C-alpha cells in the first residue's frame, strides 16, 4: 500500500530534524550547565531556556490508573536544559549519573521510575519538555527522576527525563527555584522621579528570550509607561541603555545589549509614535553591574534596560 503524501512529509521532517540534531557538536549559544549538577560526559546542550519567573510541571509520584497522583505546579526561577549524548551509554546509565549528582547536591528523591512504573505515555504528556529537536521523548522508553531540597529557607525542585532517539540519548534537566514574583512594574511617575533624582531608572519589566533582542509581548505594560512619560513631557529626551549579566563573551554581550536597547526604541517609535530624535540608544553589556555576577540573583539584577537623562 502506498504511503500517503502527508505521512511522507512527516517522515521527511523527522529525518531532517534528526539529522540536524545529530550534526550539532557544540552547546547552543548562551547556554550553560546548572551549577552543581553538570552534565553526562560527552553531551552537548541542545536546548536552553531560563526564566526569572515562570511555572514548571513536575510529578512527585507515579501515575495511578492513568492519572497523576502528585502533580506539582512550581513557580519561581525556572531552568530547562536539554542534552544529547552520542550512541553508547544506556538511558539508565545517563539517568543514574544525574541522580547521583543531584543526591550529592542535596536533593532528596521524590520519584525515580522507568516507563511502565511511571505511567507510560500519559505520564510524559504531564511534564514539561522542550520541543523537538531540542529534546526527544519516546513514551515507550524513558526514565524520570524528581527531587527536592531546602537550603537556607529556599526550596528547590529538580527533575530529569532521559529517553532515546536514533540511538542518541536525550536528557532534560528542569530546575525550579521557588519564589514569589518580583514587582518589576515601574510606572511613568516612578520613571520621572528616578530621572529627576538620580538621572537614571532601571526597568525590569522589559523581557527578551535568552540571547535574543526581540521584545516579548509581556514587555508592553512597561513600554506603555515609558510612552506615557515621554508624551507627558514633550521636551524630555532620553538615552535607552541595555545591560547584560556577566555570562558569555564581552563583545557578544556588548552587541546584544545594544541591539536590545535599539529594539526598545524601535517599538516606542512604531507603536507609540514617539519621535526617533527623542531617543538615543547604547549598550554597555556587563560593564555596569548592580549585583554580583557570581549569583543567579545578582545576574537577574544586571539584566535590565535603563532610561538615562542626557
From TrEMBL:
* InterPro entries linked to this entry: Bact_OuterMem_StrucFunc (IPR050330), OMP_bac (IPR006664), OmpA-like (IPR006665), OmpA-like_sf (IPR036737)
**What residues does the OmpA-like domain cover?**
195-310
* Domain of life assignment: Bacteria
Classification via Gene3D superfamilies: OmpA-like domain
Name of one Pfam family that matches: OmpA
Cellular localization per UniProt: Cell outer membrane
UniProt keyword list: Cell outer membrane, Membrane, Signal
Q: Keyword Phosphoprotein, does the record have it?
A: no
Q: Its principal location?
A: membrane
List, alphabetically, the CDD domains matched: OmpA_C-like
**Has UniProt tagged this entry with the keyword Signal?**
yes
Q: Which residues form the signal peptide?
A: 1-23
Entry protein name = OmpA family protein
